[in-house]
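Handout, section B. The chain below has 151 residues.
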Amino acid sequence: MVTCRDVVVAAIAVGATLCVVAVADQAAQVQSSTVIEWNSIAAEKTDTGEVRHFLKSPTATLDQLEVHVTTLGPGQAPHPPHQHPNEELLVVHEGTIQALIDGQWKTAGPGSVIFFASNQLHGVRNAGENSATYHVIGWSTPATPKAKPAP
């Protein structure tokens, strides 16, 4: 005999299974071609300026593609120098950026391209008297090394 309790347990199990399948399906979806309008992405205020997040998802050929735009106030850095397994490309839109590469700060103005290789110490700071804005494109592939555990 099927009890009310049995029906409730079965309903919960079915609901949980459907949720897991939906989440797994979402995680597997790859980014398709799109246009993302600048004004459709809200600027999030940060302690050093603002950031707009455009994409952070897998693609047909990348484990993850991340695109965001950062604006820094004069003399500001988004975070201390660091390193990570994925690679990044920065394109300076406006202002004067300094990039830490091989232990030296190198200056980059509008239109300049900065490449940060996998697991190399790097950093960015606004070296100008006005705001500086740069576009960040980061990616991970099956060849990207795994992140090292924090000490």
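Note. Strands lie at 44-45, 49-57, 64-72, 87-94, 97-101, 104-108, 113-116, 123-126, 132-140. Compare this with the example in section A.
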